[in-house]
């Protein structure tokens, strides 16, 4: 029960305790912009990898667990976490909403511990746990953004209280328009690139013939950059584009080439970020953490996410053990750092900045340890209890045991 994120984090912590000079310290308060963009790149690369890995075609019934987690579990998790933050820490509504929105999404980076494997030809070879967590992590990063923007708008209108100023603008622009733009650009870019990769009559455009994995990065940043220029949700666009490319020609081996390349880049970026997070903790990053802030992270992991995740699946496709695993593995990680850095760069919030970073960092640390220890044993046990046994060869390798 040991994961690579745990190793990266521990390595950074131990190295930064040594009496060495010229270590690349990364203080999120002083280097907020660097943290924002470094985590941003890591998340968008992970979203492309997650979308390319999913074999199950999108659909209302096929993705029913995903829709429950997105449409019900995430808003309820944000609401309950914000209420807990206000009660435990006495934070103003805008601050409580910001932290709740940052911590609500399942992270597409660290969720690799329980993510589906590489692309295959079989649409039905993904168990419900891995599929649900992968698809949830791919979509909820983009869908959490409206709540982050709501926190920014609320603190701008009233730093310490409630305000309905800009409510309709938020509903119309931040929820509807930006989501539609992200979805439309993702579909458009995905279909265009899918045609170029697999169906173009001109061989120079048919990039699948060249088997170059770095093209996946070009697809990632094309979808993300174009959507951001149009003021849409780039995270949503990247995942939708990846799923659309995956559906353009499902049996082609080029999907594995692109997925393998994005997976390697994602792991490299994850190693760098978690190493620096370990160093930040060693340098006193949790000094501003109070027992109430720690309690918020514990309440989220041990009470809110499991209870909400279980409740929204009642009557769904997942069986009892699968339902419990999906509810438990609400992994928090790199995306939470991005959202907090983004929001703190956009507005002033009526709470100590270092305390906000300490609470989010502690919660991510808790997720790395708790979910990292549990990922391999839980998924292995689920595989063994399945009617046909393990569905994927090398499933333990996907969980990255050390």
Provide an overview of this structure.
The protein has a single domain (26-266, 283-398), classed as Na+/H+ antiporter like fold. It is 68% helix and 0% strand. It has helices at residues 4-17, 32-53, 64-89, 93-103, 128-157, 167-198, 215-229, 234-248, 254-282, 291-311, 320-328, 334-346, 353-385, 395-398.
Write a compact overview of the structure shown.
The protein is an all-alpha fold and 402 residues long. It contains 14 helices and no strands.
Q: How many distinct domains?
A: 1
Question: How many β strands by DSSP?
Answer: 0
In the CATH hierarchy, what is the architecture at level 2? Answer: Up-down Bundle
Q: What's the alpha carbon Rg, rounded to whole Å?
A: 20 Å
Q: Indicate the percent of residues in helices.
A: 55-70%
Main pleated-sheet profile: none
Structural class: mainly alpha
Low-confidence stretches: 389-402
Keywords:
402 residues, mainly alpha, Na+/H+ antiporter like fold, 14 helices, globular, disordered C terminus
Topology summary:
Blueprint: H1 4-17, H2 32-53, H3 64-89, H4 93-103, H5 128-157, H6 167-198, H7 215-229, H8 234-248, H9 254-282, H10 291-311, H11 320-328, H12 334-346, H13 353-385, H14 395-398
Helix pairs in contact: 1-9, 1-13, 2-5, 2-8, 2-9, 2-12, 3-4, 3-5, 3-10, 4-5, 4-12, 5-6, 5-8, 5-11, 5-12, 6-7, 6-8, 7-8, 10-11, 10-13, 11-13, 12-13
């Amino acid at each position: 029960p040991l994961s690579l994120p745990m190793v990266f984090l521990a390595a950074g912590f131990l190295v930064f305790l040594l009496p060495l000079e010229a270590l690349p310290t990364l203080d999120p308060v002083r280097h907020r912009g660097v943290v924002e963009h470094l985590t941003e790149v890591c998340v968008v690369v992970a979203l492309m990898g997650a979308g390319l890995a999913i074999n199950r075609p999108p659909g209302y019934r096929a993705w029913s667990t995903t829709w429950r987690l997105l449409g019900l579990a995430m808003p309820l998790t944000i609401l309950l976490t914000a209420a807990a933050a206000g009660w435990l820490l006495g934070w103003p509504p805008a601050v409580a909403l910001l932290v709740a929105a940052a911590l609500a999404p399942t992270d597409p980076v660290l969720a690799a511990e329980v993510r589906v494997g590489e692309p295959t030809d079989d649409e039905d070879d993904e168990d419900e746990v891995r599929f649900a967590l992968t698809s949830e992590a791919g979509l909820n990063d983009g869908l959490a953004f409206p709540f982050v923007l709501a926190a920014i708008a609320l603190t701008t209108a009233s730093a310490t209280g409630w305000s309905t100023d800009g409510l309709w603008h938020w509903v119309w622009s931040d929820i509807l328009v930006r989501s539609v733009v992200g979805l439309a650009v993702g579909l458009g870019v995905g279909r265009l690139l899918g045609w170029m990769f697999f169906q173009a009559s001109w061989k120079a455009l048919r990039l699948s013939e060249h088997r170059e994995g770095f093209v996946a990065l070009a697809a990632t940043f094309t979808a993300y950059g174009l959507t951001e220029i149009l003021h849409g949700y780039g995270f949503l666009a990247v995942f939708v584009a990846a799923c659309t490319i995956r559906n353009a020609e499902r049996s082609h081996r080029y999907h594995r080439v692109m997925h393998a390349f994005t997976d390697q880049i994602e792991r490299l970026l994850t190693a760098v970020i978690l190493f620096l997070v370990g160093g930040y903790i060693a340098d006193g990053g949790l000094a501003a953490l109070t027992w109430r802030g720690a309690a918020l992270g514990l309440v989220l992991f041990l009470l809110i996410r499991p209870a909400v995740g279980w409740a929204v699946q009642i009557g769904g496709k997942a069986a009892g053990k699968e339902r419990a695993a999906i509810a438990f593995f609400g992994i928090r990680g790199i995306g939470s750092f991005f959202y907090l850095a983004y929001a703190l760069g956009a507005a002033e919030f009526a709470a100590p900045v270092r305390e906000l970073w300490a609470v989010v960092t502690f919660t991510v640390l808790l997720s790395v340890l708790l979910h990292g220890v549990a990922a391999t044993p839980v998924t292995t046990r689920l595989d063994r209890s399945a009617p046909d046994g393990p569905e994927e060869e090398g499933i333990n390798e996907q969980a990255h045991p050390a």
